[in-house]
Amino acid sequence: MVQPSFPIVTESDSRLPLYLTSIGHWEYQERTRRPGGFPDYQWLQAISGTGELEVDGTRRQVKPGQGFFLLPNETHVYYPTSEPWGLHWIAFNGSLMPSWMNHSGIRRSGVYALSDPDSLIAQMKAIYAMSLTGRPFLGAECSKLLYALLLDLSRNAKTGSSSSPRHDQKLQPVIRFIEDNCHRVLSIDEMAARIGVSAQYLCHLFKRVFQLRPMEYVNRERINRSKELMLNEPQLKLREVAHRVGFDSPSYFSSVFKKIVGMSPEQFRGRRFDNGFRIH
């Protein structure tokens, strides 16, 4: 068993858009029953054995390559069905969570398959190591790592109920193409050509897998990149952020950002300057 970490959440930390409340790893997860739920959001990811989650009137198996998301204060039970059931877990909160859930498609408690589970485990290990350092501005440093984890969880978790592995796999060259080129002008025809289909059929695939049109997906990827830039390079002017993530018009960037995130870029950036505090 790895000793769990419960970092002190200061008043300043609690004003961050995201903040860590606890993190750890159980090699032998035992039965956990919470009639009143847990006060924070949780992500738990299986690395060995199998278990089951009971939440919202459903029961789902959880095995390696899968994880489960739990909303605050929601009744749940999880337990091993073959041992050892090993879990990495992280608990967190913050004002950014509602907009993150809306963007990611992870809007309810439940089990999610993952396209790259190892990368998420590596990030949780990095957050755990950071939480033990006691360094200055620890809450902010953990917040930065937590934000990166949630961005990757958005991309990793398979949330489309009507999607299939076959459709997911077919779109992978397009997804990689978008990730490599979303900083420039992209057309639907150009994306469709990557997998040899018509623009109309590409739209059908995106709607089936992501419940989004291709350009909506592109814009969400651009907005994710813009948030990373604002977090990691706070000195950049917003027009430069817009240009670097593929928006020719700063006003259109602001409009798309507010539609997806629920606040303007200025408001999003301003939340990182709360109480005279800056993330370096």
Automatic annotation (TrEMBL):
<protein>
    <submittedName>
        <fullName>AraC family transcriptional regulator</fullName>
    </submittedName>
</protein>
<dbReference type="Pfam" id="PF02311">
    <property type="entry name" value="AraC_binding"/>
</dbReference>
<dbReference type="InterPro" id="IPR050204">
    <property type="entry name" value="AraC_XylS_family_regulators"/>
</dbReference>
<keyword id="KW-0010">Activator</keyword>
<dbReference type="InterPro" id="IPR018060">
    <property type="entry name" value="HTH_AraC"/>
</dbReference>
<dbReference type="InterPro" id="IPR003313">
    <property type="entry name" value="AraC-bd"/>
</dbReference>
<keyword id="KW-0805">Transcription regulation</keyword>
<keyword id="KW-0238">DNA-binding</keyword>
<dbReference type="Pfam" id="PF12833">
    <property type="entry name" value="HTH_18"/>
</dbReference>
<keyword id="KW-0804">Transcription</keyword>
<dbReference type="InterPro" id="IPR037923">
    <property type="entry name" value="HTH-like"/>
</dbReference>
<dbReference type="InterPro" id="IPR009057">
    <property type="entry name" value="Homeodomain-like_sf"/>
</dbReference>
<dbReference type="InterPro" id="IPR020449">
    <property type="entry name" value="Tscrpt_reg_AraC-type_HTH"/>
</dbReference>
<feature type="domain" description="HTH araC/xylS-type">
    <location>
        <begin position="172"/>
        <end position="271"/>
    </location>
</feature>
<dbReference type="InterPro" id="IPR018062">
    <property type="entry name" value="HTH_AraC-typ_CS"/>
</dbReference>
